[in-house]
Design a protein that fits this description.
CATH architecture: 3 Solenoid
Order of helices and strands: HH
Structural class: mainly alpha
Distance between the termini: 78 Å
Shape: elongated
Number of helices: 2
Helix content: 10-25%
Length: about 160
């Protein structure tokens, strides 16, 4: 009888620990109901919404951020493919390993942004200010950097052919 009771207690403890671990992982990744609602409302261009401080690991493909203040945002491995970031304020943003393929970043403020090893394939960066940005190892295949400011930008190890 004692063995069955101990086994039941052990199973209950394991279930509680697993629920705690799963909750902490979801909290760490920012996958909460508030962030999901924010994402949904950002897809609707007729509404404005608060953007969380961190969009790391989140998928904002095709999101509308034209003119948005995203300065200093943490977007490690964020997915922003096809996002509209025209004239967005992204100075000091941390977008290491982010996927911005096909994103529209015309006239965006990317001063001091960390875009190291980011995927910028086909990204429109015409007129963007990339002064002192970190683009080390970024994939700029087919990106358009016409009239972009790149003073002090770290472009070591970039990949691909881009338009300048």
């Amino acid at each position: 009888m004692e063995e069955k009771t101990l086994l039941k207690l052990l199973i209950i403890v394991i279930i509680i620990l697993m629920a705690s671990v799963i909750g902490n992982v979801l909290l760490y990744m920012g996958i909460t109901e508030a962030n999901t609602n924010t994402f949904t409302s950002l897809k609707n261009t007729s509404e404005t919404a608060e953007v969380p401080d961190s969009i790391s690991y989140m998928d904002y493909s095709g999101a509308y951020f034209e003119g948005a203040d995203l300065s200093g945002i943490n977007g490690y491995k964020a997915i922003l493919t096809g996002a509209d970031l025209r004239s967005a304020d992204l100075h000091g943003a941390k977008l290491t390993l982010a996927d911005l393929s096909g994103a529209d970043l015309r006239e965006a403020d990317l001063i001091g942004a960390k875009l190291d090893y980011a995927i910028l394939r086909g990204t429109d960066l015409r007129g963007a200010d990339l002064s002192f940005a970190d683009l080390r190892g970024a994939d700029l295949t087919d990106a358009d950097l016409t009239n972009a400011l790149i003073e002090g930008t770290d472009i070591r190890w970039i990949k691909g052919e881009y338009k300048r």
